[in-house]
Amino acid sequence: MIWIIFSFMAVAVFLTLALSGMGRKTSDLSRHESASAIFSDQIGEVEKDLERGIISAEEAKAARAEIERRLKAIDRQSDDKAMMGHSGRALILLAALVVPALGAGLYWQLGSPYIPSQPFAQREGEQAEAREIADLAVRLKSRLEADETGGPTEGWVLLAQTYMRMGRFGDAADAFEGLLDRPNANSALVSQYGEALVYADDGVVTPKADRAFERALELDPSNPAATFYKAVGLEQAGSPEKAYDLLKTRIDAEEEFRPWMESFVAQLNRIAPSIGRAPVDLATFAPSMPGPTADQVATAEEMSDEDRQAFIRSMVERLASRMQENPGDLDGWMRLGNAYSVLGETDGARNAYGRARDLADDLPQEDPRKVAIDRALRELGG
Hints:
The relative contact order is 0.04. This protein is 77% helix and 0% strand. The protein has helices at residues 2-52, 57-110, 120-146, 153-166, 169-177, 187-200, 207-219, 224-236, 240-252, 261-275, 294-301, 305-325, 330-343, 346-359, 368-380. The chain is mostly helical. The radius of gyration is 40 Å and the shape is elongated. The chain contains 15 helices and no strands.
């Protein structure tokens, strides 16, 4: 609907400009014709004065020459304005056609027509929240700077992370940098400092940022963030093979799925075609859903149906008991949900998958566990 309105507006502007140009042409012609009529009358008056003897022949000749000079001047001005008018109208009409077409083309390439509209009241809420965060950052910084001991490390880290969320990457780097010489400066803190430097330089891993990631890896060689940005720096330095190998070695070292693997796989698959390497499948690192062992299966097959059900139920109850002791085990809740599904206990399965979904809230949408949970809940009607 909105595009129809915009189309009508563009046509209206075009017609307005076109009619305006046509009207100006008529005005110029009328002015020239009026001037010609006035000068003709003046020449007629000069002739009458000459006949009545009011002026001499020489004076009449001079008057006629002056009137003719003025008429020629008006003719030249009209010709110049006519030429300027033609080119000006052409430019106006061309702009009226090109500007809407150019705008539509840019929006087609850069716009996002499927993003839902955002009510003004909602934007006001976001702006108020942003102002509140900025105010909190100012007060936090003032408090930290007023602390005679230099302020707690946790406070400075919170301030730096707040600056990162606000897009003030340079300020974030400064806040992190002040902590580097403290005894409790760990690998995570140093790599966050390097990340702030990278963001502050529009994604470029500068030598200063590279040194930060080197130090972070010295403190903890398994730091995935430092490894990732170290690889980014290697690629930017013209060594995509080393970047690929570094990422692949790190991701292969994990025995189970980690949320950061998604970024690693995306980076690996982005580099792989340029160096002739095979793409990496994220599903390779997805958590497996362990089922019963071979011995357990063999034991169950030898049982009667009644004993088999009791055997399976005992396994499920043990798993459910473990989950009560360890409620933060996302994979465990998924296994329990699957076990209840096998037993046909929909309520238990839905509850277990629901607990898993709560734990998976912070995972990326593309995380295979999140996808599996959503699919299971849909099948369970939850």
